[in-house]
Amino acid sequence: MSASPLTSRRLRAPDNPVPASREEILAAFKRQADYCRLREAPLTASIIDAAGTDLQAGGPIAGLLQDFDEDPARGALALRIAGAVHYLAIKGRAGPLQKAYRTLSLPETNAVAASLAALAEEHGAVFQSLVSRPPQTNEINRLAALIPAFSEVSSAWGLPVDLYELGTSGGLLLSPDRCSVDYGAFSWGDGPVSLKSDWRGDAHEFADRLEIRGRSGCDRNAIDFTDPEQMDIAHSYIWPEHPERRRTFDAAIAATRDAGARIDRADALQWLAARDIPQPGAVSVVFTSVFAVYLNDDETARLNRLMDDFGARATTDAPVAFIQFEPEPELDFVTFNVDLTIWPGRMRRRIATAHAHGAWVEPVPD
Ligand SMILES: C[S@@+](CC[C@H](N)C(=O)[O-])C[C@H]1O[C@@H](n2cnc3c(N)ncnc32)[C@H](O)[C@@H]1O
C-alpha cells in the first residue's frame, strides 16, 4: 500500500494532541483517494471516498474517528480504513463488499458507502484496532534503489557485506542477493524475487554478485511473518488492485526466511550500540530505509555519533558504510535520496535519487 505524498518531515504526534477536525480528515481522504486513482487502485479509492461520505453523514466511521488525534495525512488514516476493509475481505468477512474484492469490480458509489457503514457497524473492533495503528509496510522494491549502493561498497573493497538494517519491519530488505532487478535498459542479479525499476541514467555496471556474509536488523515493532495474523494484516496494506506486488512480497518473505536473516524486536539506537562493528573481512553496512523520519534531533545526533565511533575503528580490511534511503524533506515525499558515507576516511556522497518505492532510480554522477 502506498501513502500519498506527505508534507512534513516528522511523523510524531504533537505533545498536546487535539482531535483532528472533520475538514482536515476529509482533505487527507481526498488527497489519498486521488493518489490511489493515479496509482490505478480505484477500488481502494472508492472505499476512501465512502469513508468521507460516512464521516460527513455522521455514520459509524464518524463515530470511530471522533477522538482521532494524530495528523490524518501524515498518519495515513485513509489507508488504515482501507486496510481494515481489505483485512476483512482477506478473512472472507467483507459482506456486501466481498465480491468487489474478489473480482476487483467497482460497485456503484452509494452502494460502497452503505456497505462500508454496515461493515464498520458489524466489525467495530477490527476497525478500531486497525485505525489505532499506523500501517506497517515493508517495501521490497526499495531494494532497486539500495542495491547500487550495496554493490558500490562491496566492489570498492572487494569484500562481502555484513548488513545491519535499522527499522527493518519484517526484514525483507536484508535479502538483496535473492533478487533480480529489471532496470529497463539492463538487469541485475538472478535471484527468485523479481523487482522492477526504471534506471534514469547511463547503463550501469554493478558488481555482478553481491556476497552477503551477515544479515540482521531490528524494529521496535518487527513483523513476524510466521504468525498468520500478522501476515494477514501485512497483506491488507497491499492494495488489492496490485496482485503482482503481493506475489513479490510473498516471494521476498520466503527468500528472507531461506536466507536466515536475524531480526530483533528492539529500539534501533540501543540495538546498534550493542553491535560489534566493524568486523574484519567484510564491509559493515548499516542502512536505513524510511526510518530517519521517526527520529527526533537528539536521536539523529546519537545515530550519527554511533556511526562516527564505528567509523573511527574502520580499516581497509574492516570498512564501514552508512547508507540512507530517506525522503528529501524539502521536496515531495515521492523523491527520495540514497546517501552513502564510508570509513576509513569519512567520505560522504549522494549515490542516487529515487522514487519512494524504487519505481525509478536516477544515479548522481561522482
Ligand atoms: C516506514 S517503515 C520502513 C520499513 C522498511 N525499512 C522498509 O523500507 O520497508 C519504518 C519502520 O521503522 C520502525 N521504527 C521507527 N522508529 C524505530 C526505533 N526507534 N527503533 C526501532 N524501529 C523503529 C517502525 O516500527 C517501522 O517498522
Describe this structure in words.
The protein is of the alpha/beta class and 366 residues long. It has two domains: 110 residues; 218 residues, no CATH class. Helices cover 39% and strands 18% of the residues. It has a nine-stranded mixed β-sheet, sandwiched between helices. The longest helix is centred in the N-terminal third of the chain and has 17 residues. The radius of gyration is 21 Å and the shape is elongated. It starts with 21 loop residues before the first helix and ends with a strand. The N terminus is likely disordered. S-adenosylmethionine binds next to strand 6.
Topology of helices and strands:
Blueprint: H1 22-38, H2 42-57, H3 60-65, H4 77-90, H5 98-103, H6 109-122, H7 124-131, H8 143-157, E1 161-166, E2 179-182, E3 187-188, E4 193-196, E5 198-199, E6 212-219, H9 228-236, H10 243-259, E7 262-265, H11 268-273, E8 283-289, H12 297-312, E9 320-327, E10 335-343, E11 347-355, E12 360-363
Parallel strand pairs: 1-6, 1-8, 2-4, 5-12, 6-7, 8-9
Antiparallel strand pairs: 2-3, 9-10, 10-11, 11-12
Helix pairs in contact: 1-2, 2-4, 2-6, 4-7, 4-9
The structure holds S-adenosylmethionine.
The site of S-adenosylmethionine has 19 residues, from β6.
